[in-house]
Every structure is written in structure tokens, then in C-alpha cells.
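Deliverable D4.2, example record:
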Amino acid sequence: MREPCMAKPHNSRTGPTSNTVTAQRYTMEGLSELATTFKENVVVKDRKYHMKTYPQCFVGSEAVDFLVQSGSAGNREEAVSIGKALQAMHLFEHVTRDHQFSDKTLFYRFMEGDERGSMNFDETTGKAIEWTNFFGPVGRDGDQILQPKFDQEKLAAIDPKDHHVISKVWPMDELNTALLNNVHPPDWQDPKATESDMYDVVVIGAGVGGLITAGSSAGVGGKVAMIEAHMLGGDCLNTGCVPSKAFIHSANMAHGLKNDVARMEEAGVFVDPSAVRVDFDKVMKRVRKVRSEISHHDSATRYSKELGVEVFIGYAKFTSPRSVIVNGQTLNFKKAVVATGGYPSLVPMEGIKMLHEKATSKEICDSERPLVMTNETFFNMTRQPTNMVTIGAGVIGMELSQAMQRLGTKVTVLGRSGKVLPKEDQDMAEIVKQQMVDDGVDFKLSVKEYVKLELTGKTSESGLPEMAMTMLEKGSSEPITLICDAVLVAAGRRANVTGMDLEKAKVDYTPDGLVVNDKLQTTNSRIYGVGDVCSKFKFTHAADFMARAVVRNSLFFGKEKMSELLIPYATFTTPEIASVGLYGKDLDEQGIEYKIIEKHFKDNDRAICDDSTQGFVRFRVDTKKGLILGASIVGEGAANMISEVTLAMQSGTALGTLASVIHPYPTTAEVLRQSGDVLNKEKLTTTVKILLRGIVQMQ
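Output generated by the structure prediction step:
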């Protein structure tokens, strides 16, 4: 047995006591030395528990014995702390990944460094290879952050499959490089798969749907591979929910100080709006900071080392109904899940595709880059445009347009249908639109044709290339031209179904996505779909719960149905608008009798106190039992309030019953309880009222 080497303690002003020494006294170098000794000295062998054999593992209490007897730990409590530190270094894991290291008869196995994929290491420095290895210092133009200069010789040394991400994310500052190190580490070392390996589940795509499917399947003991070609975390983390809400936060703060002056003065607060200045570069830096901080949760290292998922970074292609190939390795599977999401589509218009390609070229510096954006590149901005045109009046277009206007960019929103937020009840959507008009947004919602987008050859006040967009409105024979220095295309998304050789897997698809049944099975019953690639509900939380259903159906003979998922959704404009269940038009089409119950925030005490009386709640209830069939809320905090309504619907709680649920006073959520009061009062027919009066008079 090798004599254990003692780890080097940190310097401490007070010094550790005998009973409180923990692994914190060890340097990383010391822990690494101890890890080598630990691995060489604990007894590793096959062990049995409940008729099952666990190969080549050690026992926690025996490992504690070694740490104490060797002098590496002063007592058993300290030994457990050291063991947990070694486990955090991914030296070993519990055999079923259910327990931290403890002084008990629990089995643990040593992990090979790249058995589920790992970051590669530079042999000369011994450090993990990160994106900063491939470029020099970030250049600056005044306060403007520009793309760095890439070391082409070094860049050529890494796998070409990694190159594309640097054309999708900029600027490559410390925040974005930290993001990419988590969600697309360069030169990632895939696990080594053999022909004899059989995966319980192979997941293609690592957005929310793929991450939940992979993590949950591994968590119940499955052998799971997850394949992602782009960035783990998908749209939600990288280009959707997370960055957009951070962006909207800054916009709403600016609006409150600059534009709500009268409202603030009414409350006794006086602000000089001329003293309020928006630093757009710092706004976007905070967006990148928030995204970077959250990204560890979706990182390749976390899923491979902590959650037990074998992570492959590359493009997956089916080679048969039960196998895929990625980076030259064939993975055989019992079940597979396609969770490849969707992508934004451009509208038919001369010049837009060419300018969009130029906008995403890594060969162009920021000052020459035309801002023709989708949500995938919107959050790359570092310079604020003067005038932005948004194509599309749906959720993405409305949220980002209002935010840009509130930050000081003049915004015009274009659409074809004459409506905004077309899914929502139009009187509610109109409240959102009117607020945006008050903010300064222009709307042109009767576009017949988007004719042309071109550069004018001039530079805007913001220093960006100026563009001219020509369009034709309905009822007009003369086209109009809008001058702008930014275009946001938010006119719909398409499913990512190409490039995977789905035909070889006998999986049918259409331009709308995978063809799936109510259990989310494709035409190959062993392959399932999750998220935007197969659903009209293109929301993060929808993909989350579709993934949970697929795990039950694919691994545990479940009978979960997509049609039984009750999915709320919200638009994070000001005011917010949120809905769940069926709309009136849905009920009318299905011939279902219902009544509408409404309660306005102008009658709510808390809303009056907060000077936030805009909006109302609308319930659509069954005429017989008062069950909630659908509901919509427009107003401040609507997105949070819709969850209570969803719970009531999920549990079969009638609206009248909500009237008996005590809510704290004063809260805006009282409008939900008060809506139940309204319904109950409507049930008081003349006959019932006469009967009740008679009972009172008899007292």
C-alpha cells in the first residue's frame, strides 16, 4: 500500500481546530495529490446488494477508515468532508447517483475522466481548453466592444464542428466566452461508444426538452446519450426567455424614470427625466452577465459529471430505426427522443436574406454590420440603433419592440393581419397595443407585401449602416419606404427537422415538424418528439412537461397524453397578458355552452394603491358546474396570477369555490377570488333571494 502524501493546508490566521477541520484546508493541488492516494488505496471490488451486483466499487465507511487511519483526516467527520470534496471533483460517484459521500455502507465507483465526455486539456499548461485560447484581447472602438482577432493557426487546430458558434455569438468578451465554455466548450472530448453499447435513451437536441429528458432518464438509472450541435440550453437560455427578460428589466426601469413622471409626482416622488441616461452597452453587458451566470445549470460539464449523461457535441444522423451516428461514432438505442427545436424564419422580401447573412458574418466589424436580426442575434447588439423596424406583432415582436422603444430607439411594428398578439382576445391585446402606442411605438398592421430591403450607403446617427425598407399596404397602390438602422424579423418559426436523415429511422415529418401521436411517439414507435419540433405550444414550460411525459411513456410504460397537458402562457409586455385553457372562439367552435365572468383591476384596492389599475381578468366557465374552461388576464403581474388559475383548472376546482379561498389583503390576486363571488351572486335567482329573505325574517 502506498504511503499517503499529506495535502497542503491553506494558511489560516486562526488555524483549524481538531473538530472543525474540513476539506477547505486543502489546496486544489493538495486535493489532487490526495485523490491519487485515495484511488490507489481504497478497496475496489464487485459488491452485491438486494441480489444485484455492482462492479468494481468501494464502500463509503471503508473509505472513511482509510482517510482517518492514513492521517489524511483527523476524525471521521473531517474524512466525510474530504470525501465530499473529492466527489465534487468528480473523482467518484454513488453507483446509482443517489447519494453524496457518507460514512455508511453505500457503494461508490471511480469515474474515468472522459467516460461521459469532458473538456480537453492543453498539454503545455495542464489547463482546460477554453474559447479564450483561440483569440487575443478584445479590440475596442471608443466604448464600443468589437469582435476579437482570432488566432487562425490555433483555431484551425480545433474541430471544425466548433467553428460555427463564434459566428452566432458576439462580442466574444469574458461573459460570452464563459457562456460558450459552459454550453459549447471547444474541443470537447466525446465519450467512447462501442458497438456493444446499448443506450436506454439517445436524446438529440439539448434545449429545455432535451435537457429534461436526458437528465430525468439518467436520474432513474438509464444509460443516456445527449447530442447537441450548437449550444446546450437551446433558445431559452441563449436567445429567448433568459436574455429577453433581463433586457426587458432594464427597459422597464428606464421607462419608469423617464416616462412615468406624472405618475411618480402623484406619488410624491420627483425625478428630472432629462438626467436619466441609458447606457445601451451596459444594458447588453448585463444581459450577457445574467445569461452567463445561469449557463452552468445547462452546461456540458454539469450534465456529464453531475447528472450522469453522456454528452456528445456534434451533428446526429440516423443510420437505422435504432441507431444514430455522431462524430463518426455509432450509438445504438432502445428509445430515442428528437428535441431539436425550431428556428426563426425570414419573410419573403428582396435583399433581406443577403443582408441577414452579412449581419451574421464574422468577417465584418460592428460598424459595418447591418442590424438585420432575429431573436437568435438580437442579443448580440452592443450599439443602440436609432430607428428599428419589427416585422411581426406576435409575442417576440411585441416584447422586444416595447423594450427597445423604452430604451430610446424609435420603433415601428409591421404586420399583415391588422392585429397584435392574434391568439389573445382582441380587446385584451388592444390594451397592450395602446400602452405601446403611448410609449411611442408606431404600428402598420395592414402590410400587403414586403417589397425590398437595401442599404442606403449612409450611416445613421448611431453609427450603424442605414437601410431602406419598401413595403406596400393593403388598399394602397403606392409603396412606402421606412428608413431604419435595425430590422428585427419576428414573423414565425419553423421546426428543425432536416439534416438528421429521419427517413432512415422511418420517422415521418412535415414542414410543421415531426408527426407524433398523443403519446408523443413518431411513426417509429421507439422514437419520440419533444418541444418545438413537434408542438404548436412553443414554450419552455411546455417542452419541460412534454419531456416528463416522454420519460414516463418511453421508460415506464406510461400513458401520458399531450392532449391532457394544461399549458398556460404569458407575454411579458407592459401590461402583461396571460392565458390558459380554451378561448371563447374555441368554445364556440366546439359548441360548448359557457358564460364569461370578468373582474377589473380598477375595482381592486391593491391596484388602486399601486396606481396600476389597467386591465382585468376574464374567466370562461361551464354554465352547469361553474368549472373553469379557460381564462385570460391582462394587467400588471398577469403572468404570476395565471398559475393559480391553472392549478384550479388542473384540480377541477370550480370558479365559485375560489371565492372561499382566503387571499391576503390587499393583493391584486384578490380579483381571482372576487370573480368567484361574481359567479356565486349570479346564481342567486329571484326565487332563491326570496327564500333567503324569508329565512332571515324568521330569525
